[in-house]
Amino acid sequence: MNVKQLEQYFIKELSALYDEEEAKQLFCLAAGQISEWNRSQLLINATTQLSAEQSSAYNYILLELKKGRPMQHIFAEAWFYGLKFKVTEAVLIPRPETEELIEWILDTVKTQPVSSILDIGTGSGCIAITLKKNLEQVEVTALDVSAEALKVAAENSITNTAAVNFIHSDILTYSSPSKYDLIVSNPPYITENEKKEIHQNVLDYEPHLALFVSNENPLLFYKGIADFALINLHPKGKLFFEINEYLGKETVEMLSAKGFTDIILKQDMQGKDRMILCNL
């Protein structure tokens, strides 16, 4: 079987779980891992015959994908903002939308420098570690309620040579005398009613603790983090959120009612309300 035939086989075998474009992307990721080919090299090698060893490796990945396992869990790694992160079922797989949040933060601090950052709900550590790598002189702290997630984040901190301080605590009950110039969070925000929109492999393999909130109180963590920020941000400090695309207006109103100013609601590349910046 050559490369093009194998790609078509992937598409056919994964049709129950993924559409054609998704399956092609997964095949491209598999080719990058096994054959070290990018998309252009895939096209160039379309008629290349695969060795028995390579075929076996591709087939293993296909079998795992058919079980619904995310590709990042099969490889136990994910790329985020040019950095490699270990991922397990204890942490969320980093998303491209969060890279946009990173970009917004880095653009902001170019003209409004900060010396301390707190990342709340750090998970794999992707936000905190990426910020530390790009802002080496800034002290970065990361908090999470999950001890297992913090183990992964600590490993990622070492692997990426980024010195981050980690705190094991629940932000809804955590108190601290420490103050920060910038607080950022991508907290749980998917309501129970939205579960039907979530891909099955996310439901089966990613931590619900980091994903879901009740229908009755969807802004639970945003309110808690905002209250923490009122006490723990320096004057004129900044609060960044990644948000539920359906709750942009409600989140802005909540922050305004708590006294935050200069609130900006920003859309992601897909045109969805996805990020907020406000000042104390």
Report the top-level CATH class of the largest domain: Alpha Beta
- Measured as a percent range, the helix fraction is 40-55%
Beta-strand content bin: 15-25%
User: Could you report the average pLDDT, rounded to the nearest whole number?
Assistant: 94
Biggest pleated sheet: 7 strands, mixed
Instruction: For the record, give the distance between the C-alpha atoms at the N and C termini, rounded to a whole number.
Output: 61 Å
Detail the poorly predicted runs: none
In CATH, the architecture of the largest domain is 3-Layer(aba) Sandwich
Form type:
elongated
CATH superfamily of the largest domain, called what? Vaccinia Virus protein VP39
Q: Which class best fits the helix and strand makeup?
A: alpha/beta
The neighbouring-strand order within the major sheet is: 5-4-3-6-9-11-10
CATH topology of the largest domain: Rossmann fold
- What is the count of DSSP helices, taking H or I runs of 4+ residues? 11
Estimate nothing, just give the exact number of structural domains.
Answer: 2
